């Protein structure tokens, strides 16, 4: 039965009230949980920012990078012809390696902006690698930060990756954020803005990298796997794809230094291998709220290949 004309205002008010009620019942994000708790220890603050030329050299794609006038920040870009990359001037046995990075918004599927340690040029086909990779995306979907560890050729031929991925608690396109790796003889710690997000412990010789490595940064086309397993690929109608690196920091034990003459960078305020209570709480928060994949929990993996799990 049609409503009488006099009923229309009341019906409209009722509809508005119901709409407001439904909106109020929707789960709302808790603002207090949008940021991780303080880790209480800020290793990045113990190291000074380096000029690019103090620690790094251009590795490839020199025509696709520009250095800031003060020499402390570097812009890399990728187009259909090439990406670009840089490499530390020295190899290291351990240390702190960090860079502040800002990536491009919009359609960036297939684009990999990486900051990592590797010895692939020294040990081709049998190398070690420790990765922090910002994987591009499509509009409306977040970037993915992938952390990974390859040991003695597990990244060559038949890939045996040890990935942990995150959708970060901030927009990495809106500002610079500091991504860092602390690699010590007993563990590898991945940090974002000094918040530990992953700890990879040395459990066996076979699952931990202990040969010298160099630090690298790059932007390159990883369309085959980077975005939704390769479903979305780099679309060069959106080129150039731009990533910016700044606040470069290295505090490491150089491979060409005197053995025993360098102490590992502390992973915790006490200097012990174990993280502090505050650091552990911050890492639990990051993994509970931001982690979207962990290889040890993937039932499709052959866990005989991952004794550390």
Strand arrangement within the widest β-sheet reads: 1-4-13-6-7-8-9-15
Extract low-pLDDT stretches.
Answer: 1-33
Class computed from helices, strands and strand pairing: mainly beta
Mean pLDDT, rounded to whole units?
89
Q: SSE order in H/E notation?
A: HHEEEEEEEEEEEEEEHE
N→C terminal distance: 66 Å
With helices defined by DSSP (H or I, 4 residues minimum), what is the helix count?
3
Number of strand segments: 15
The rough form would be described as globular
Strand content: 25-35%
From the alpha carbons, calculate the radius of gyration and give it in angstroms.
Answer: 23 Å
Major β-sheet profile = 8 strands, antiparallel
Helix content: 10-25%
Q: What would your notes on this structure say?
A:
Residues 1-32 form the signal peptide. It holds the Pfam family XET_C. Catalyzes xyloglucan endohydrolysis (XEH) and/or endotransglycosylation (XET). Cleaves and religates xyloglucan polymers, an essential constituent of the primary cell wall, and thereby participates in cell wall construction of growing tissues. The chain has 3 helices and 15 strands. The radius of gyration is 23 Å and the shape is globular. With 309 residues, it is mainly β. Helices cover 12% and strands 33% of the residues. The strands form 2 sheets. Strands 1-4-13-6-7-8-9-15 form an 8-stranded antiparallel sheet. Strands 2-3-14-5-10-11-12 form a 7-stranded antiparallel sheet.
List keywords for this structure.
309 residues; mainly beta; eight-stranded antiparallel beta sheet; seven-stranded antiparallel beta sheet; 3 helices; globular; disordered N terminus; disulfide bond; cell wall; glycosidase
């Amino acid at each position: 039965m049609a409503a009488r004309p006099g009923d229309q205002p009341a019906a409209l008010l009722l509809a508005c009230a119901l709409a407001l009620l439904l909106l109020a019942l929707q789960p709302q994000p808790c603002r207090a949980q949008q940021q991780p708790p303080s880790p209480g220890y800020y290793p990045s603050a113990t190291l000074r920012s380096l000029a690019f030329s103090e620690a790094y050299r251009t590795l490839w794609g020199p025509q696709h990078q520009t250095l800031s006038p003060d020499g402390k920040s570097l812009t890399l870009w990728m187009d259909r012809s090439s990406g670009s990359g840089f490499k530390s001037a020295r190899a290291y046995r351990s240390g702190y390696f960090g860079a502040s990075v800002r990536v491009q918004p919009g359609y960036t599927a297939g684009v990999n902006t990486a900051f990592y340690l590797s010895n692939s040029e020294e040990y081709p086909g049998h190398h070690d690698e420790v990765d922090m990779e910002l994987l591009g995306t499509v509009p409306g979907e977040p970037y993915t930060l992938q952390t990974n560890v390859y040991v003695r050729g597990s990244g060559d031929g038949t890939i045996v990756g040890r990935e942990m991925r995150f959708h970060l608690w901030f927009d990495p396109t809106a500002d610079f954020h500091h991504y860092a790796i602390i690699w010590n003889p007993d563990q590898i710690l991945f940090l974002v803005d000094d918040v530990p997000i992953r700890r990879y412990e040395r459990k066996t010789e076979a699952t931990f990298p202990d040969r010298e490595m160099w630090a690298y940064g790059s932007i390159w086309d990883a369309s085959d796997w980077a975005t939704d397993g390769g479903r979305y690929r780099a679309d060069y109608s959106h080129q150039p794809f731009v990533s910016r690196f700044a606040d470069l920091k290295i505090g490491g034990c150089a491979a060409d230094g005197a053995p025993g003459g360098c102490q590992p960078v502390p992973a915790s305020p006490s200097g012990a291998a174990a993280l502090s209570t505050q650091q552990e709480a911050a890492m639990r928060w990051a993994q509970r709220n931001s982690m979207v994949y962990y290889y040890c929990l993937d039932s499709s993996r052959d866990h005989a290949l991952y004794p550390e799990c």
